[in-house]
Amino acid sequence: MAIQTEQLTKIYTEVTKGGLVQKKRTGVRDLNLEVKTGEVFAFLGPNGAGKSTTIKLLTRLIFPTNGRAFVMGIPTARRVAMRRVGYLPEQPNIYGYLTGREFLHYVAKLCGLSNTDARNQAEILIRQVGLEGRADSHVRSYSRGMTQRLGLAQALVHDPDLLILDEPLSNLDPIGRKEVRDLILELKKQGKTIFFSSHILSDAELVADRVGILNMGKLIRTGKMDALDAARTSSVEITFQTDETTRARMDLTHWDAVCQDMNIMIRIEDAGDIPKTLKQIEQWGGKLVSVIPQRQSLEEYFMAELGR
Amino acid sequence: MHSLKHIAEKTVIIVLLLTLAATVYLTQQAMDRYQSIRFVNREAVFLPKGEVLKWLSMGYRGAVSDWLWIRTVLYVGRRLMDEDNPYFEYAVTEGTIHDEIRQVRDEEQITQLDSVYLLDDHLKGLLHRFESRGLVVHVYPMLERLTTVDPYFKFPYIFGGVFIMMETGEITAARELLEKGYRYYPDHWEFPFYLGWIQWMYRGEMDLTQKYLLEALQCPGCPDYVGDLLLGLTRNLGSESFAALYLSGIHESTDNPEIRRQVHRLMIELQKSPGAH
Amino acid sequence: MRIQAIAANTFRETIRDRVMINILLFAVGLILLSLIIGDWSLGQQVKVIKDLGLSAMSVFGLLIAVFIGIRLMVQELERRTIYILASKPVHRWEIVVGKFLGLASTLAINVVLMTAALWAVDYVMEGRIDIGLIPAIVLIYVEILLIVAFAIFFSSFISPTIGAIMTLSVFIVGHLSDFLREYVEIYPDQGFHWFLKAVYYIVPNLEKLNMKIAVVEHLEQPPHVFAYGLLYGLAYLSLILMLSILLYQKRDF
Question: What's the farthest any 2 CA atoms get from each other in chain C?
Answer without folding.
Answer: 62
